[in-house]
Amino acid sequence: MGFLRIAAAAALLALATPVAATAAEGELTFPPQNWSFSGPFGTFDRAAAQRGFQVYSEVCAACHSVKHAYYRDLGGIGLTHKEIEAIAAAVMVPSIDDDGQPAERPARPSDHFRAPYPNETAARATFNGAYPPDLSVIIKARAGGADQLYNLLAGYAEPPADMKLGDGMYYNKYFAGHQIAMPAPLSDGRVTYADGTRASVEQMARDVTTFLAYIAEPEMEVRKRLGVKVVLFLIFMTGVTYAAKRKVWADVH
Amino acid sequence: MAESAAAPHPAPHSGGAEVTKRDFLKLVAGAGAAVGVGAIVWPMIDSMNPAADVLALSSTTVDLSPIVAGQAITVVWRGKPVFVRHRTPTEIEEARAADKLRLPDPATDASRVKPGHDQWLIVVGICTHLGCVPLGNRSTEVRGEYGGWFCPCHGSEYDTSGRVRRGPAPANLPVPPYAFEGDTKIKIG
Amino acid sequence: MAGLHKSEFENPVIRWVDSRLPIFTMMQKEYGVFPTPRNFNYLWNFGALAMVNLVIMIATGIFLAMNYTPHATMAFDSVERIMRDVNFGWLLRYVHANGGSMFFIVVYIHLARGLYYGSYKMPRELLWILGVVILLLMMATAFMGYVLPWGQMSYWGATVITNLFSAFPLVGDYIVTWLWGGFSVDNATLNRFFSLHYLLPFVLVGVVFLHIAALHITGSNNPLGIEVKGPQDTLPFHPYYTIKDSVGICVYLIVFALLVFFAPNYLGHADNYIPANPLVTPAHIVPEWYFLPFYAILRSVPDKLGGVLLMFGSIGVLALVPWLDTSPVRSARYRPVYRILFWVLVLACAVLLVCGGKPPEGIWVVLSRVATAYYFLHFLVILPVLGKFERPLPLPESISRAVLADGGGGGPLPGGAAAKPMEKA
Q1: How confident is residue B175, by pLDDT bands cut at 50, 70 and 90?
Q2: What number is the average pLDDT over the span C338-365?
Q3: What is the mean pLDDT of residues A197-223?
Q4: Which of A6, A18, A140 sits opposite C343 (nearest CB)?
Q5: Which residue in the set B11, B21, B36 is minimally distant from A237, CB to CB?
Q6: pTM for the structure as a whole
């Protein structure tokens, strides 16, 4: 079947196109990293994600929200309900008291992560007009995914001699245009890990990327596990229906 | 096509073994298709069940200290009204006295409160007849002949233990799962 | 017996219903014993696949709509809630999102099959035109559905595509304001797009019904492109093609599942996970992949109105194909020149698809112009002229003879008409 063969080639070409399209978007390429969560059987490295949560809380959370995530989501990276309750209770979230006035109460596991500012306008006022993006789905919102975030966080450097940085801008090898409004958030020893891991910039960048990958796709492990079962079942069904088809058509052939 | 429908003979060279194997394959394919369709339908049905955020909100804490004897407040638990009533000694007395009567839905008053906290009655404020919210939680509202609650929709009356005493309601006002966290604080759910 | 249909079913319940409303007789006639050419290849699966896909889209869509909030300030968040909180919400959304892509893959192959084997020719012109209407409805539905998550690509896609209508002289701006229900894409736009996105699939179901009704009047074309001459050329639809379609459905579902479970965002665009921002346009906006060829045609013309007309014309010209193609031979198997030019057309479409995803500069503009030119040349010039000059290969005498001779469609025939396998009624 000439048609079938050529059509299959065309289909492959069509599937490959989005990659070509995204690669053309910027001249930036992000050296690929080895992630525990990549591949069809990937899972989140729990220890790395927990360290990453620490980095997020102690560093990123000052400016960046993860407003779609809940404290209870931390159960997915291996924290117990007691630990989550304690983490939440240490955070005061906005509420309304019995007189209807704005007040604060300790957070519960069912609450969304508290945002560092009440709304986007307030954020821009605080950050000189810049808006630190919400990080809930940041891994999915960047074409380079986890690799892009990791390389950005570890990509701060001295600008080349011939480059003139804008006011309040910082040089980054992996940001479009190489000028970013966010100062380097990580420096060696910025956090102290309870498990004794050395908090190098690369280590912290890797950990917080793992955490944010989980926050972006909390369903990923379930999805991939279910996917393996579904595909195996469908392969079995293809075999059965094909055998049945051969039997039915045996009359005609 | 009418002719083909009217001639239900198998093709001449379809031997017995062939037919059996073919039927078996058809059976497996049919069963597999049924399993597959079920597996496709289930996520859709389950998506209508309470979502994770709804389930996570399934507990409410209530501070009892501002409620004086004879008063009641309404709190929201899982989107439903829950009556939290501070009963007077007389009301407790009336409720216990009714334990011996023939009730539509027999239950002792003791079984509807927590031991040592007899003055606190916590019930879901939804009439067991057809789901209206009974009157009587505010002291200015009509409470019916038995001093508890009165449902304006179809006239069911509840006593000071939240038990149905008269009217079409088939059951007592249900007691939600709750626990005392100290003497003046409860956690519902 | 007056007024009752004479049912041939034995089961008393079925018979009772069938006598009053002969749906069982109809199903038996149209899907049971329906005489179908015996030489279909697997490309004839794609109609059934499109049907399955439509059902999947409507089913998942209904359950997504139960959890989606069509409001500019809440739409993005409600989609995230579907992904995180609703039981299997992520599955429903990923199936629906990738189902859109699968639908276009299936329908484009279905369409290409029709072009290759001349399925649009007399007497199937109306069947073909209904197919073009289905394609248009699909495009409108897909476009409006893509707006609903209210990400950056949703918002700017909606802005750019609705602005196409501003190209029309005099009334253009009024049309755009009317489409928006305001002076920019905003909450009113989102609400009406949600309403129409829910409505159009059911209109689609209606047109699909007409498409199938028309098909069952003329009967199916086949890879040889010659008409069925008698019962020896056909097989009852069931079980021969129900089982063959089932094989195709399984393979299709494997591809679908691989996308949904292992690469759910591969065909999407990262920017659509950034909430819509009316003040900032993304650096590089592109439609979903299935619109890229049309987007490339639009951008290949340096004139605003010209680009819009050419883009709509590229679909409109499909509806005229039955009259543009003057060759009396249907199947490209017997048209040596057309067969090559068909693949040139496919290549042109592939080039347009790639160009649509590239920035409109340099070589990409040149390539899309060449491909656009060929696209229209193919339909408007080559098809009419080729039919007059091409020397087709000799056509086989009948389907059964051809099948017997080369086994291309289904292998040798056991013994003419007498061996035609029958379906149990």
Answers
A1: very high
A2: 95
A3: 97
A4: A6
A5: B36
A6: 0.89
Supply the ipTM of this predicted assembly.
0.91
- Closest chain A residue by Cα to residue B58: A110
| C88 inside 8 A of chain B by CB | yes
**Does residue B91 contact residue B162 with C-beta atoms inside 8 Å?**
no
Counting one residue from chain A and one from chain C, the pairs whose CB atoms sit within 8 A come to 138
Distance from CA of C140 to the nearest CA of A (A): 21
Per-residue model confidence (pLDDT) at position C125: 97
pLDDT at A105 over 50: yes
Residue with tokens 């190489």: A178
Q: Could you read off the pLDDT of C57-89 as tens digits, one per residue?
A: 999 999 999 999 999 999 999 999 999 999 999
Who among A13, A25, A141 is closest to C350 (CB)?
Answer: A13
Query: Is B1's CB within 8 Å of C35's CB?
Result: yes
CA C233 vs. chain centroid, Å, equals 28
DSSP C183-249: SSS-HHHHHHHHHHHHHHHHHHHHHHHHHHHHHHHH----TT-----SGGGEEEHHHHHHHHHHHHH
DSSP-based helix, strand, coil % in chain B, nearest 5: 30, 20, 50
Residue C424 has pLDDT above 60, yes or no: no
Query: Annotated catalytic residue: which of C78, C154, C220, C400?
Result: C220
Q: Which of B108, B106, B112, B124 is nearest to B170 (CA)?
A: B106
Contact in structure between C188 and C181 (CB atoms under 8 Å): yes
- Domain ranges for chain A, please list them: 2-69+112-248
> Over the Cα atoms of chain A, what is R_g?
24
Q: Please, what CATH class does the domain formed by A2-69+112-248 belong to?
A: mainly alpha
CB-based contact, B5 to chain C, within 8 Å: yes
Mean of pLDDT values over C370-398: 95
Put simply, the answer to whether A14 touches C262 (Cβ < 8 Å) is: no
Does residue B9 have an active-site annotation? no
DSSP label of C393: P
Report the C-alpha gap between C187 and C317 in whole angstroms: 35
| Partner chains of C (3+ C-beta pairs under 8 Å) | A, B
> pLDDT confidence of B56, banded at 50, 70, 90?
confident
Give burial (CB, 10 Å; 0-12/13-18/19+) of A11: middle
DSSP state of B132: P
Fold of B54-188: Rieske Iron-sulfur Protein (2.102.10)
Across chain C, mean pLDDT equals 92
Nearest CB to A240 within list B13, B32, B57: B32
A178: left (phi over 0), alpha (psi -120 to 50) or beta: left
pLDDT digit string, tens, across residues C149-162: 999 999 999 999 99
Counted across chains A and B, CB pairs separated by less than 8 A come out at 39
Residue ranges of A 65-104 with Cβ closer than 8 A to chain B = 70, 72
Instruction: Give the torsion through C-alpha atoms of C341, C347, C348, C349, to 10 deg.
Output: 120
Q: Which of residues 218-257 of C touch B (CB under 8 A)?
A: 231, 236, 243, 246
Residue C286 has pLDDT above 60, yes or no: yes
Residue C380 confidence (pLDDT) above 90: yes
C77 given a catalytic annotation = no
pLDDT of C180-217, one tens digit each?
A: 999 999 999 999 999 999 999 999 999 999 999 999 99
A121-129 contacts, C-beta under 8 A, 24 or more apart: A123/A63, A127/A63, A127/A181, A128/A168, A128/A181
Give residue limits of the domains in chain B: 9-46, 54-188
Map tokens 């939804």 to a residue.
B126
How many angstroms away from the CA of C192 is the closest CA of chain A?
26
As a whole number of angstroms, the distance between CA B53 and CA B64 comes to 27
Contacts of C7 in chain B (CB under 8 A): none
Q: Which of C238, C414, B18, B28 is nearest to A247 (CA)?
A: B18
Q: In whole angstroms, what is the distance from residue A95 CA to residue A23 CA?
A: 46
